[in-house]
Amino acid sequence: MNLVIRGNHISITSALGNFVRSKLSRLDKFLDMNPTGDANVVLSVLKNDHKVEVTIPYPGLVFRAEESSKDMYASIDLVVEKLERQIRKYKTKVTRKLRYDDNLRQQMIENSLGQETNEVKSQSETTETAERFPIVRSKRFHLKPMDAQEAILQMNALGHDFFVFTQAETNQVNVIYRRKDGQYGLIEPE
């Protein structure tokens, strides 16, 4: 895997760069296919907080983790452990998913999502206020066609509470989200 290592408020020494490369090379045994791009590693230091952020693009999804501690080397170890857990969890779920019969899986999706879509209503009424809401961050990404179950796997792998994707059957943009009760909801356009 190709690594792009950057530092914020820290210079990347050869020893630190080699340590990051050696630790992240442990993940190569889990990633049987080549990542779709360069893995990005950002090391930053603010006061006594040493933070490590790693993003690994993979075909159809992205693995991302961040950890911070009082020691940069400990933060690197923690983020590698977190990524290893994410990758193992994803691989296990994909393997399990492939074992299920398509008809059974489709029936389960329809049952679980059919109840949720009745509860989820889009609210088109908005009250205009004189205030403006500042947008502090903007992201652009490719929407890969997938089914709801694959979107849930991707969302969990990223550690997010929602995930935007293109529904493979309808080719429409959908949003899958985690509810407060731990179950999942699906928002689809009419």
Topology (SSEs and partners):
Elements: E1 3-8, H1 14-24, E2 39-46, E3 49-58, E4 61-69, H2 72-99, H3 102-119, E5 145-146, H4 148-158, E6 162-167, E7 173-178, E8 184-187
Parallel strand pairs: 1-2, 5-6
Antiparallel strand pairs: 2-3, 3-4, 6-7, 7-8
Helix pairs in contact: 1-2, 2-4
| Biggest sheet descriptor | 4 strands, mixed
User: What is the count of DSSP helices, taking H or I runs of 4+ residues?
Assistant: 4
* Poorly predicted tracts of residues: 115-130
Shape: globular
Share in β-strands = 25-35%
Strand order of the largest sheet: 1-2-3-4
C-alpha termini separation: 42 Å
Q: In total, how many beta strands?
A: 8
Which structural class matches the secondary elements? alpha/beta
Any overview of this molecule?
The structure is a single chain. Helices cover 36% and strands 27% of the residues. By secondary structure, it is an alpha/beta fold. A four-stranded mixed beta sheet has the order 1-2-3-4. The protein starts with a strand and ends with a strand.
Please give a quick description of this structure.
The protein is an alpha/beta fold. Helix content is 36%, strand content 27%.
Question: Features of this protein?
Answer:
190 residues; alpha/beta; 4-stranded mixed sheet; globular
